[in-house]
Design goal:
Elements (H helix, E strand, L loop, with lengths): L5 E5 L3 H13 L3 E5 L2 H11 L3 E5 L7 H9 L6 E5 L4 H9 L4 E4 L4 H21 L5 E4 L2 E4 L4 E4 L2 E3 L3 H11 L5 E3 H9 L4 H18 L8 E4 L3 E4 L7
The chain binds calcium ion.
Length: 235
């Protein structure tokens, strides 16, 4: 994994900030740090970090506002780190443009694992370089021109909605997509019945995608949404 990436650590709690800085340093990551929302936005703009670790509870501005500001000019992955365990806050952060979330208290191993997931997504974004006619992730292949998906050599028999869902996840590999986002993208609006349908379609899609105990492509975030994982090429 390319560790030559720059991480912006945004955290007002000095103890937590120091723990994160020490973790970055010990694991060979370059980092910069900010203790409030305004300096976070300034550091993000002047240093163009590769990944942003963002505490939501900041003294000068709500972290959601920071996400909205940063998202207005860059797609840099944002991992929200929040003491708020309520799903609503995570959903609000993801819908504002965050890529992932960690709930405090978190372990150093968990933080590093999330950074690695995001790094794989970054590598993928760099090598992908715009819309490709063929999407590949492990043995999964989507031929956008033909409108077909394959697992290895075998064609996946998907309904139009399952195919649409698969393409949606493929275009956001590594990012947690909320129920609201998914239903708006696929059904045009987010209603209770759309969410219920989505669960059924997702279960069917996963059955076809992950059959015979194969590679896990879709991760469930209970009460929040789903994410497509970037699978290593040799698996
Ligand atoms: Ca805080």
């Amino acid at each position: 994994m390319n560790h030559n990436i720059l991480i912006l650590v945004v955290e007002d709690d000095v103890t937590v900030r120091n723990l994160m800085k020490t973790t970055m340093k010990a694991n060979g990551y370059r980092y910069i740090a900010a203790g409030n929302a305004n300096s976070a936005i300034m550091e993000a703009a002047s240093h163009k970090p590769d990944i942003i670790l963002l505490d939501l509870g900041l003294p000068d501005m709500d972290g959601i506002k920071v996400i909205e500001n940063i998202r207005s000019w860059t797609t840099t992955p944002i991992i929200v780190i929040s003491a708020r365990s309520e799903d609503e806050d995570k959903i609000e952060a993801l819908d504002a443009g965050a890529d992932d979330y960690i709930t405090k208290p978190f372990s150093v191993d968990e933080l590093l694992a999330r950074i690695r997931v995001t790094e794989r997504r970054l590598d993928y974004m760099i090598t992908k370089d715009g819309e490709e006619p063929v999407f590949e992730n492990g043995v999964l292949k989507i031929d956008h021109v033909a409108g077909c998906a394959y697992l290895g050599e075998e064609e996946l028999h998907l309904t139009p909605i399952e195919y649409k869902l698969l393409c949606l996840f493929a275009s956001h590999v590594g990012k947690v997509l909320t129920h609201t986002f998914i239903t708006k993208e696929v059904w045009g609006q987010c209603t209770e019945s759309n969410i219920a349908s989505m669960r059924v379609y997702m279960a069917n899609l996963r059955k076809k995608l992950e059959k015979d105990g194969g590679v896990q492509y879709i991760q469930t975030h209970i009460g929040i949404g789903y994410r497509m994982l970037k699978v290593e090429a040799d698996k």
